[in-house]
Every structure is written in structure tokens, then in C-alpha cells.
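Weekly modeling sync, notes
Attendees: S.R. (lead), two postdocs, one rotation student

Agenda item 3: backlog of single-chain predictions. S.R. asked that every request posted to the team notebook include the full sequence so nobody has to chase files. The rotation student volunteered to paste the first one in as an example of the format we agreed on. Action items at the bottom.

Example entry:
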Amino acid sequence: MSARLDRAYREDAIAHLEDTEIDVLVVGGGIVGAGAALDAAARGLNVTLVEARDWAAGTSSRSSKLIHGGLRYLEQLDFALVREALKERGLLLNTIAPHLVHPVSFLFPLQHRVWERAYIGAGVALYDTLGGARAVPMHKHLTRTGAMELAPALKDDALTGAIRYYDAQVDDARYVMMLARTAAKHGATVLTRTKVTGLLREGERVIGATVMDLETGQEYNVRARSVISATGVWTDDMNKMTGVDFPFHVRMSKGVHIMVPRERLNMDTGIIMRTEKSVLFVIPWDQHWIIGTTDTDWAFDKNHPAASHADVRYILDHVNTLLREPLTEDDIVGTYAGLRPLLSGASSDTAKLSREHAVAEPVPGLFVIAGGKYTTYRVMAADVVNAAVAGLGSGVAPSVTEHLPLLGAAGYQEMLDDLAGVARNSGLPVETVEHLMGRYGSAANDLFELIARDPQLRQPIPGAPDYIGAEAVYSATHEGALHLDDILTRRTRISIEVADRGLEAAATVAELVAPHLGWDAERTNAEINRYYDRVHAELAANEARDDEAANAARLVAAI
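Predicted structure, as returned to the notebook:
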């Protein structure tokens, strides 16, 4: 099957939504929904995945972009969760997505002599061994001198020594999109901008859903033997749609991150530090550092969580306790806020609510999954699909995703080993090929073909020189992007990686993709203006004093 999610694919898929009863309808195109669609399709089932906005438009594009076991969960004695997550980290690094998931090192500064090194060292040693086969380098104990050589940006009195350990990182939005494309390759129908507006019922049983194509307003009745809701922080909205109380509910915790230029901090490693609530990361991200996160209740708009001035100050104040030259708001080139879908419990502190997941069948035919963490999405997906197919007969195969590489993984290592040769054959600089390989894996060959047909696409995008024109075009021709913000925010990270948030790049990108998305001049200008409005709304939110004011400022823009 084709993994090319272009305009023709979408039109054909929409036209056939009502043709036959399918096995599984998955609602929600975040990490768990896309994972469930792939899990079910790889078992040979007839699957449709619908997402109301864009792939990963909610929580799954707004994480710390780490694939990790959760070092802090060891302190909470949640060994099972850490072991499971570390096993998944190894699978992602070595088998499933070596082109998208890469090791990253962190320095844990020690501020107390003797006892802290023994205490933290024992935890990190356990962290290195819980996940089974070694997937990343083992931790090392460092003196203060050794730590300062790795991170000269730190204050002399910020640490007495340190421990260096490794985890992994990923472009979270691109990973979800690649999951959806891989599901399509295995026969699933995958659609964005398609919103479930109601459930189809036979008596108490759910037998499908009414789905609206938000691009046209047309509604379709999609009949399915099982419906899976993987809607994250929107889980309670599905609850209201059924009219039946679910056995669990979701509470929203807001996490904010800021982005600063790489040259601003003289370090060769990331940093992890304790805060009074949780931990704060300084994470290397290509030419930038991601710094975050916060952990606070959010009671406002789910689609557009906003980072307030208070959030930004919290992050700066905490990270500056370690830095020789403090960061200021002028150093920030991007911010983003996401909502964690935590299973609600008795605790009033979101940092203590469960990161474990739960699966339920609140009404016959409807299966709901909530909670969990990005790293363990594959386990969550398998669990909910297992529940959903239990009534479909004994012929359904077990999950195979543990051994299933994502699109772009096959051939990636061979291309990477011959990087100079690939660059020579493509006619591109080695650094450009390396950049493309880290984002597309072996699917970078598709971009080489685009450039061969139109050499102008090798040029950097004005205002976003880390990306080339071919990447914008490929977003529309292969990766399912339908709007300008899909490209600037999730197919690329231009919206948070350049100081003007992509305002200069917007016009060029819109003009590049307009012919492929069927936009005329009026539609192209509308997309640009729509994106401008969003950027200005987000910047206004960043100046707001608190969540309520930030929410009001952000909602001025529709996207």
C-alpha cells in the first residue's frame, strides 16, 4: 500500500468512508491513536484513523521530545513503569525507529557531598540496568572539574560533582506522522481534519461514528465493529458523547518549554536539575536548547494551551540558578505549551498523578485508552487493540509492532554509513544530507528525487535556513500537510526555532506548496494571514500575567 499522503489520497479515502463496515475505527491522531492504527493494520485488520486537526496537533507535538524511562519515577519506586519504558526506549533506538530516535546525554549536577552521589548514583545505576540490553552508554561519575569541562556554562558553585547518563530524544510530531504513514503503508485509511461529531448505536452498542470532513463540512457515517478512543485530554469529551460515565477521567497538566540558541550555552551535554515540583531539563536540539518543563493544572481551552509570562519566568529563574551567564527573555526564540493527560486521582498535585495508562469498554463496542507516556505508546496501543479485537474472533493475530520498523528505518544505517557517497550521488552537501537523514531516514531518497526534478528545491528557505524547499513540498506531497501551520509547526519546527516564529518563512513556504494543495492566490494569502494571526496571539499570550489572561490572548487566533 502507498504511504504517500497527498491530496489525491485524501480525496479517495474520504470518498470511500461509507463503503463497507471496517474492523476498527480509531479516533485521535496523537501518538497512541497513530500507534493503535498501525498495531491493528499490521494484524491484517481493516482500519480507519481519524484526527480532528493534524497529526500530533495536541499533546504529542508539545512534549520534552525525550524517549526516556522516567528517572524520577525510580524515586517514587515505580520500577515496573521504568522497566517497561526503558525496554521500549531500546526497541525504538535499535529496531523500530533508529532514524528518528537518537541517544542524548545529560549531566546531573550534585550539590551535596558523599550522600547525594551515593543516592543518585545508585538510582542511575539501576536506571542503566532495568531496561535489559544496553541501548545507550552507561553512566559515569564526574568530579566538578570533569563536569565543568563538559559544561563551562555552569557556575563554579553550582555543583560539587556530577553524574552523566544517557537517554534518547525524538521529534515527537514527526514521529507521529511517520507512524500514521506506516499505518497507511500497511493498509489503514488515515485522515486528518476529520472530526467525530457523534457515535452510531444499535441499542447500547457503538457500531461506528459520524465523521465530519472539516475541509468541506460534509458528514459521513463510518460503520465499525470496534471503535477506539485515543483522544488524550479530550477523553472526557468522548465521555459526554456516550452519555455513560467512564470508569476513569483525565486531568490536564500544562507543561511549558522555551527554546534558546545553541551558542547561548557553552555545553556539550544536556542538564537535568531538581525543582521543588519535579525536574527541569536543558536538552540539546540541533542548533538550539529546549528548556522545560512546568507542571501545573490547566482549566482552559484544550486546543490551544498557552505559555504565560509566569511560566516563562519560572523556567528562566530555575535554570539561571545553575548558569554563569543568566538567560533572559531576549534569548528566547520559541515557546510551546502542551497538556499531559493524567489519570485523575485523589492527589491535588498533578506531579503525583498517574502516568500509567488504563483501558476500558464503557459501552459495548467503544474502547477508551487514557493516561500513559509518549515512550510507552506502543504498549498502550497493543493493549487497547487487544481489548478491541477480543470479540472479533480467534483469527486475529497478536501484536507484531515490537519487530516492525517504521517508514524510513529500512536502509537507513546503510545510507548513514555511506554518507559521503549519498551526498555525492544526490549532489547535496554532506551536512544537508545528514540533516535530511535525521528527519526522514531512508525516505530522504524521495526528497533527492524532488530536487533532481526541480533543483531550486535544494535552496534554504528564507527566514529558516536550516530547512530546504524540498522539505516544504514533501510535507504536502507525502506527509499529509493540509495547512501552512501544519508545515511550519509540525512537519518542520520553524515556528519555535527562529526568532520571528516563522513569519518571514511563511510566504515562501505557502508559495511552494500552493500548487500541490490546490491553493489559488486568495487561499494562499489566507493561509499566510491565518498563520500570522496565530504567531501574534502566541506572543501576546507569552506576555500575559497568568493562565486566564494567556488563554484569552491565545484564543484571538483560530489555530
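Discussion: group reviewed the output briefly. Confidence is low (pLDDT under 50) at residues 346-354.
Action items: rotation student to repeat for the remaining queue; S.R. to check formatting next week.
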